[in-house]
Design brief:
The protein contains four helices and three strands; from the N terminus they run αββαααβ. The protein is an alpha+beta fold and 136 residues long. The chain has two domains: 50 residues; 80 residues, no CATH class. Strands 1-2-3 form a three-stranded antiparallel β-sheet. A hairpin with a 4-residue loop joins strand 1 and strand 2. The longest helix has 41 residues. The chain is flat, with a radius of gyration of 26 Å.
């Protein structure tokens, strides 16, 4: 591949770079504005105790809570030292989640034993859609 670029290609590349930078800047600004509106809508809906809303123009909003589960790795690692499951603790001393899942499935470890290490994060999600009006 040649490191020499002709003037026409260089000019085109410079124009594309400028346009791309402008689009990236606009996208960042719009993304920040979207995030702000998202937060305002969720707050207003939460304050009024509603999870769904449809505007007169047919824009549908719904807020839902999504649970995200993760583990307290440090606590789980201490627990993993107390059970005899081959391959559960790795050299770098982390819990192999595949081995843990398999051990739970085969009842080598009770799910009750690892409950203290489960962390649940609730994430609030806003969905926005608009149904098309059918002209009859």
């Amino acid at each position: 591949m040649s490191n020499v670029i002709d003037k026409v290609s260089m000019d085109e590349l410079n124009q594309l770079a400028t346009k791309y930078k402008d689009i990236c800047d606009k996208f960042s600004a719009i993304e920040a504005e979207k995030k702000a509106y998202n937060s305002m809508i969720k707050n207003l809906m939460n304050e009024n105790g509603i999870t769904k809303h449809v505007s007169p123009s047919g824009i549908s909003l719904s807020v839902s809570k999504q649970r995200r589960t993760s583990y307290d790795e440090e606590g789980l690692l201490k627990f993993a030292h107390t059970v005899d499951v081959d391959g559960l603790i790795q050299t770098k001393e982390y819990v192999d989640m595949d081995v843990l899942e398999n051990a739970l499935y085969h009842r080598q470890i009770s799910s009750d034993d690892i409950k203290p290490f489960i962390k649940v994060n609730v994430i609030e999600a806003l969905k926005c859609s608009q149904k098309e009006v059918l002209n009859e």
